Amino acid sequence: MSTHASPDPGSAGPLAGIRILEVGTMLAGPYATMMLADLGAEVTKLEPAGGDISRQVGDSYFASLNRGKRSIRLDPGSVEGRARLGELVANSHALLVNLKPSAIHRLGLTYASLREFNPAIVCVAITGFGLYGGDDPAFDYIVQAATGVAALTGDPAGPPTLPGYSSADNSTGLTAALGLLAQIVSGRGGQVDVCLRDVMLSQLNYHAAAYLNDGRRPQRRPFGAHSYYVPAQLFPTADGYLALFVTHDRFWKAFAAEAGVTGFDTMAERVSRRAEVLAVVTAALARDDARGWEVRLRPLGIPAAAVRTLPEALDATPEVVAEAGAYRLVASPIRIDGYTPEYGPPPQLGEHDSQEPVPQ
């Protein structure tokens, strides 16, 4: 079986001809495979008789993670289901699984168990703590708490805070999709092991490096202030909050001129005199509202944005909204010259039960 697609340039997606099976629930696994489906891969959800549990959360929730996929009801624990799984694996490039490790092993959803059907199959396991790391509960918020993300978030005078979206699940989904494609490109087949804990620790990269190499413990700072850059955080204004991110002296010089601030000319000085800098900047920003500062600073090349709600952000960027059947969803963030995704609706449960796999 060939591991590389031959798409029609300018029309088919870059992953046209790639077939991916998914045994996934809720978010991380389905999000990973949806990103691949958006790029032209054929993704088939293998669902239990009652369907992926996320179907029970709500139609729009399910659609946001499963547009453009196929659905086959299959019980890999039954004799018939195992035979059907073998047929599908024989004609697929990858299987992505998002279950507890014990279930993955018990159902034989690993490369060691499936290589007999297709030695080139890529098997990706998304778990909380690794394919051999046990079955401790590992939902997104649990992992954020366990890896230091929550401890770094929120006001230092208040309790730790969780981000308002599923950052661990989404990040792990993207990482799993990368690992899946890397192993397909290698042409070797094999097992890929991606877990939420390791992904989130990896994303704390410079915080972790500072502790591991310099013994520097990360601090939770007011308004989400950056550890290395000053000023780089949220600031209150006359009306609303402004995100200002000054990463080098040229940005500071332009900001200082516009805001009527003097001194603190080097990054080193701004870092060493953090409290003074923040007091001066806060006082200056109080003279206009957040939207006003955004309008004033952006033409100068200074990174600044007024804090908006999600509805405000979506209303301001209608180009990122796509139609997938009856649903309006955020489109793929990946833009490729010559290719425009056609977003299909999410599949009905078992919609493709009767379709036979087409040999490669």
UniProtKB/TrEMBL annotation:
<feature type="compositionally biased region" description="Basic and acidic residues">
    <location>
        <begin position="350"/>
        <end position="360"/>
    </location>
</feature>
<dbReference type="InterPro" id="IPR023606">
    <property type="entry name" value="CoA-Trfase_III_dom_1_sf"/>
</dbReference>
<dbReference type="InterPro" id="IPR003673">
    <property type="entry name" value="CoA-Trfase_fam_III"/>
</dbReference>
<dbReference type="GO" id="GO:0008410">
    <property type="term" value="F:CoA-transferase activity"/>
</dbReference>
<keyword id="KW-0808">Transferase</keyword>
<feature type="region of interest" description="Disordered">
    <location>
        <begin position="340"/>
        <end position="360"/>
    </location>
</feature>
<dbReference type="InterPro" id="IPR044855">
    <property type="entry name" value="CoA-Trfase_III_dom3_sf"/>
</dbReference>
<dbReference type="InterPro" id="IPR050483">
    <property type="entry name" value="CoA-transferase_III_domain"/>
</dbReference>
<protein>
    <submittedName>
        <fullName>Acetyl-CoA:oxalate CoA-transferase</fullName>
        <ecNumber>2.8.3.19</ecNumber>
    </submittedName>
</protein>
<dbReference type="Pfam" id="PF02515">
    <property type="entry name" value="CoA_transf_3"/>
</dbReference>
